[in-house]
Inverse folding.
């Protein structure tokens, strides 16, 4: 890696210069997870399948939950699972962010390393894992309904702004975690609260009118709606909503990166 | 020997800024007009002079 790549100010050129390293680290992290296990990669499909089975059982057999609203024709377990899988891209990345730099202190103190790629590696890994979850969802959908929606090809486009916004949050939290060691606990609680405040287990239509406006402030809710509309109804998101999410995502990402870039020189002082 | 001085340095020192807690470093970034660190002077009062080399 050249010094120019480390010193260059523009984030996109820095990421492009480090693309091989990013992919290498992500691949290593993915394979390290199953290293030495008996089932190996089977786990990456087995885990979401078991999660799906447990959620499906609890919510349909014990809670007798039903989905009200425009998607009521779709299977309830599939609806909540699509929400869980999408939300996990955000929550897993954000939960890991506060300890990302702390756990790689030698990258800060011992070598010249492009620290800003660590959150990107993390989000790539979580997107791949979400992909396995999505694969399970599609298999179940294909087996139970006999067909798959054409809207599946919209899924990557819908996930992209969520990923970019999550990256911004992760940059911010990765830096903050170095200085405020309580961050990991704060973030852990915040994401589990947010999971219930995001329409994952219930339809957004069932939210009482007085809270609807507050719920609208959560951009993940909009992404979930778009995901479900694509997977179960084959609809492409409303273009204005979609562009709005992109604007929001780019705004969050540039704020997060600006903070990260400004504060990184102080990491070595406190590690 | 020439008495001419080519290079002179007086009273040099090196201080490290010591932060007691990690959050102090964050506060220092946000509130630059205040001090959240303690100085540790590793080196202080070093002076030296170098004369011109004789041709």
């Amino acid at each position: 890696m050249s010094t120019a790549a480390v010193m260059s100010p523009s984030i996109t050129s820095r990421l492009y210069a480090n693309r091989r390293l990013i992919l290498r680290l992500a691949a290593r992290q993915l394979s390290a997870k199953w290293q030495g296990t008996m089932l190996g990669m089977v786990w990456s499909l087995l885990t979401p399948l078991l999660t799906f089975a447990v959620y499906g059982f609890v919510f349909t057999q014990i809670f007798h939950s039903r989905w009200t609203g425009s998607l009521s024709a779709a299977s309830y377990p599939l609806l909540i699972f699509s929400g869980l899988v999408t939300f996990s891209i955000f929550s897993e990345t954000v939960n890991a962010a506060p300890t990302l730099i702390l756990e790689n202190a030698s990258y800060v103190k011992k070598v010249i390393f492009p620290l800003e790629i660590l959150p990107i590696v993390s989000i790539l890994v979580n997107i791949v894992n979400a992909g396995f979850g999505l694969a399970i969802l599609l298999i179940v959908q294909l087996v139970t309904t006999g067909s798959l929606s054409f809207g599946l090809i919209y899924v990557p486009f819908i996930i992209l702004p969520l990923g970019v916004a999550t990256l911004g949050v992760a940059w911010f939290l990765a830096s903050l975690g170095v200085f405020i060691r309580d961050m990991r606990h704060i973030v852990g609680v915040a994401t589990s609260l947010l999971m219930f405040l995001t329409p994952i287990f219930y339809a957004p239509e069932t939210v009482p009118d007085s809270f609807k406006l507050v719920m609208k402030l959560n951009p993940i809710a909009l992404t979930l709606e778009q995901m479900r509309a694509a997977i179960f109804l084959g609809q492409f998101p409303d273009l204005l909503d979609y562009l709005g999410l992109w604007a929001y995502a780019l705004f969050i990402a540039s704020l997060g990166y600006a903070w990260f870039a400004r504060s990184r020189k102080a990491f070595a002082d406190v590690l | 020997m020439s008495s001419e001085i080519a290079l002179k340095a007086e009273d040099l020192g090196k201080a490290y800024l010591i932060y007691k807690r990690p959050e102090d470093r964050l506060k220092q970034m946000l509130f630059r007009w205040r001090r959240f660190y303690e100085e540790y002077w590793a080196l202080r009062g070093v002076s030296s002079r170098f004369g011109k080399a004789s041709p």
